Amino acid sequence: MNLLTLAHVLLFLPLTLAATHHNHPHPRTSCPYPSTTDITTIWNKLISGNPAGFISHFRPFLSWTVMGSHPLAGHYEKLSLFIVNSEGRLYNALAGQPTYTLVNVVGGCESEWSVQEMRMQAVAKNGRILDEINIWATRWDTEGKVVQVRSYVDGWATAMIIHENENWSDSTWLTNRTTYMPGPNGVDLGLVAREFG
Ligand SMILES: *[C@@H]1O[C@H](CO)[C@@H](O)[C@H](O)[C@H]1NC(C)=O
Ligand SMILES: *[C@@H]1O[C@H](CO)[C@@H](O)[C@H](O)[C@H]1NC(C)=O
Prior knowledge:
Layout: H1 3-21, H2 36-47, H3 51-55, E1 58-67, E2 74-78, H4 79-92, E3 99-107, E4 113-123, E5 129-140, E6 146-152, H5 155-165, H6 189-196
Parallel strand pairs: 1-6
Antiparallel strand pairs: 1-2, 3-4, 4-5, 5-6
Bound molecules: 2-acetamido-2-deoxy-beta-D-glucopyranose (2 copies).
One 2-acetamido-2-deoxy-beta-D-glucopyranose binds near residues 174 and 176.
């Protein structure tokens, strides 16, 4: 998902939600929550390159925790914040689209939680091979939408990819610094002006 696709997803998310809201959810007789078959169908959208279709199964306001200790880890209460700060930031460090393979789906149907095991493969801008397993524990509502996620990622690989492929941290003494780049914490320009004139 490049940034354009991301922007597209964010722009059309409310439309998609409005459009699907009136349609009846997956026909289910005995499952209050999506079954493993339903979930596999949803995940196949991500795998087949339909991120907008995939993400339409997630509530815009939810609880999303990216687990582990690395630059993208954290808790998000908004889907768009997760997509920009975590997914988009990672994708920005990649040379192309990642490939996803669904390894396993457990739960769903009578259980409000399900667990999806995914393999994610990509090449970073600097050539580093990313080949990791992501585990997403997801809680569903009875309308078949995800309301909570705990996504477990490879912390070391994530930290290395971000570190090596963002200009904030990839500099060496050979780099000519020609633009102002204060870093993620910003710089107090007022203080700089007072101290250095
Ligand atoms: C930052 O990285 C981007 C993408 O690799 C590059 O186009 C841009 O020139 C870099 N900016 C600086 C200030 O190095
Ligand atoms: C950085 O600037 C110096 C001096 O202008 C120049 O000789 C050198 O080639 C530049 N390095 C890069 C990587 O552009």
